[in-house]
Write a structure and sequence with these properties.
The chain is mainly β and 112 residues long. The protein has no helices and 13 strands. The strands form six sheets. Strands 9-10-11 form a three-stranded antiparallel beta sheet, with no helix packed on it. β4 and β5 form a beta hairpin.
């Protein structure tokens, strides 16, 4: 499904509303002056408040595992992420907590 290319400066939130920080591996391809995010980039979530009492206990989101990057475009040999890409917020125990939300992104560059 086509969608705008995601970049490091976009606003992505975990299922519980905490901002996702992306550590880019791509420094060559830019969109609006920001590196395009690719599927192999590290995504960190710090401060997620999600807990499930009493067992198994706290299960805050700590990272995003992206599932559907672009399929027809590559950035330095890696599929880039799109605003429409789906993923899962993952806890430290490896449990999926729900999908991340890409709320603010550039709209000028579209990929499939």
């Amino acid at each position: 499904m086509p969608g705008p290319l995601a970049h490091v400066g976009n606003t992505t939130l975990c299922t519980h509303g905490v901002p996702v920080q992306t550590i880019p591996t791509n420094a060559r391809v830019l969109v609006t002056g920001q590196p395009v995010t690719v599927v192999s980039d590290t995504t960190i979530i710090a401060g997620c408040p999600f807990t499930v009492p009493p067992v198994p206990g706290p299960m805050p989101c700590i990272r995003v595992q992206w599932l559907t990057p672009a399929v027809r475009v590559l950035v330095n040999g890696q599929p880039p992420l799109l605003q429409t890409s789906t993923g899962l917020c993952i806890s430290a125990q490896g449990t999926p907590n729900g999908p991340p939300l890409v709320t603010v992104n550039q709209v000028r560059v579209i990929a499939t």
